[in-house]
Amino acid sequence: MSPAGTDGPGIVAVGETPALRHPDAACTTAGLMAQAVGQALRHAGLSPAQVDGLGVASFTLRPDRAIDLAWQLGLRLHWCMQDELGGASAINLLRQAWLALQAGQARTIVLVSGDHFTGADFAQLVRGYNRSAQDYLSPLGCQGPNPLFAMLTQRQMAQTGLRREDYGALCVAQRAWAADNPNAAYRAPLTLAQYLDAPMVAPPLGRLDCVPVVSGATALVLQARPTGVHLRLVSSGARYNHDQQEGDGLQTGVAELADGLWQEAGMGPQDMDVVSVYDDYPAMAVAQLCDLGYADANDLPGFIARRIATRQLPVNTAGGQLSAGQAGTAGGMHGVVEVARQLLGQAGARQVPGARHGVVTGYGMVQLRYGMCANAAVLSREES
Questions:
Q1: How far apart are CA 215 and CA 344, in angstroms?
Q2: Peptide bond preceding 48: is omega within 30 degrees of 0, i.e. cis?
Q3: What is the pairing mode between strands 108-115 and 53-57?
Q4: Which of 19, 163, 208, 234 shows a CA-CA span of 20 to 30 A to 28?
Q5: Cβ distance 253 to 238 under 8 Å?
Q6: Is cis: bond before 282, omega within 30 of 0?
Q7: Secondary element (H or E) of residue 237
């Protein structure tokens, strides 16, 4: 990656559609992606003719693929890539696009993630998510990730002393951040009592522990030689099948890459002004905060009370997926876009004053027990 303070690529703009719980019949995945790309290019002051690279992540764009979307957007490309690793796809694309820009394979790359779900679309996705889901989980009535992460949450509670009230404090804090995000699916204030009274889905998971499915798209614009305010990717790392599904799931692959991530960045957790962790469930947000070095697994209730419930630590400042919604693969880019907004100074009423450094994680692709993919990136604001 390009060390801070050196010439090299930069993120110059972002785009994001509102998260739609009930999109109209005319809504399509390609249409949502076009909106996000158009918004990001306008913010960057660029035209489609200046784009020569495209990276796409989507479950529902099919039967079309990245090259089809490029044609629909009128793009003539030197670099094109597609990624379908769910919540890890955004950082995957970001890392590869950065290398392509450094190598001179493109000058301006747009990365876009998005999905549009009807009820039938989502049901089909969870039934046939992968071969394991088709052959082993779905026939048992275990459809989708909720039952699997309910068991993981039970394990985390037993090992750490966390209670539903602690997870609720995290959800309430993220909803408070979401109140100032006009794109969030859920912005109304949430109380701990409302969280605890929500219907059970898969004990101990209630409805508000489970990420809401939405339709939407997110986009980033990167340039090989940016001018003005832009963001550097100062470090990143990834792990895939880090324990071959043989661990307890309470530690993600982020734990293995964290030391190298901070060493490459020349910074530590304490230097980050804004943090985004992939939050399909509260237990996974907590796990990744431990993996990054923010929390001690021996004092998680205290950490949540001191740093999260008070919003002293700016975590998931757009509301996270638990309040903003998960638009399929766009959920993976939601956190990247939010950290970028904060560092570019474009987060509106939720802006963290003086934010210059941020860290974001990705996590996803559930196998028989939990996610197989984990990655993270540190971004820094620069001006030239």
A1: 25
A2: no
A3: parallel
A4: 208
A5: yes
A6: no
A7: strand 229-240
* Residues 6 or more apart whose Cβ sits within 8 Å of residue 362: 87, 88, 89, 90, 91, 92, 278, 332, 335, 373, 374, 375, 376
Phi, psi dihedrals of residue 47, rounded to the nearest 5°: -110, 160
What is the pTM for the complete model shown?
Answer: 0.96
What does the alpha-carbon distance between residue 262 and residue 357 come to, in Å, rounded to a whole number?
A: 12
Sign of CA dihedral 261, 263, 267, 268: positive
Alpha-carbon distance 114 to 35, whole Å?
Answer: 10
3 state DSSP class of 129:
coil
Tokens of 301: 């209730």
Q: Are strands 10-16 and 216-223 parallel, antiparallel or unpaired?
A: antiparallel
Is residue 30 a contact partner of residue 38, using CB atoms and an 8 Å limit?
no
Tell me which residue has tokens 């609720």. 168
Question: pLDDT tens, 172-197?
Answer: 999 999 999 999 999 999 999 999 99
Q: Which residue has the tokens 């859920």?
A: 186
End-to-end CA distance of the chain: 18
Overall size of the chain counted in residues:
384
Burial of 384 (0-12, 13-18, 19+ CB in 10 A): exposed
